[in-house]
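dude i think i finally got it to work??
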Amino acid sequence: MIYFEFDQCVNNSLALLISVLTTTILFITTLMATVAHIFYWDASYVLYYLKAKWKGYRSSALPDNMYNVFVTYDTKDPWVTEWVLETLRVKLEVEGEKALPLCLEERDWPLGVPLIDNLTHSIRYSRKTLFVLTKAYAKTGLFRLAMYLAHQRLLDENLDVIVVLMLEPVLQNSHFLRLRRRLCGESVVEWPRTAAAEAWFWQNLRNVVRVDNQTMYTSTYSQYFTCSRERD
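look at this
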């Protein structure tokens, strides 16, 4: 054993091959995990879009929509979840002159159905989609995917169904938010800083979700929109 040469048991070419294969497998696995984490929601939307194009798109512009408002929010934040279920739901569904049936993920989504299917169904069969934004939720892929699907209704059905409710000051430098304020400023509402303004906030929110967004566009865009339709 003292004079045994361990180099006799080493195959340099085989060791090099195993090293290259192991390094390649680790690199590909790491790359795939990183890409899936970053672009998962974008890829989900692309697959949904291709699936809709392949099977054909059926318009959901029906007078008997199942829900008046679909509320999308950060279900992982217990404070936001409690606020939506205990405050927002009561103010819109229970109080007020007319009840506004809401679609809530934790209450109305059937179990066992893929998230993308639940999200698509909720947006397509609701008159409005209400985004309850916080700093954490605005960074998630779910928010980005829901916004893509809501914009898809604008492209396919010419229906603007987006309403933004900001619980926190988010997306201040967002081009999307700036454009929406210019085109339809009333569809962007902010949680008031004083308790005295909460009554006005709830009444304003009820009005916004009841009225079609096209009727709330600014005069400049409304004139352009009317002229464009007349040319068509």
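Residues 57-63 have pLDDT under 50 and may be disordered.
im so relieved honestly
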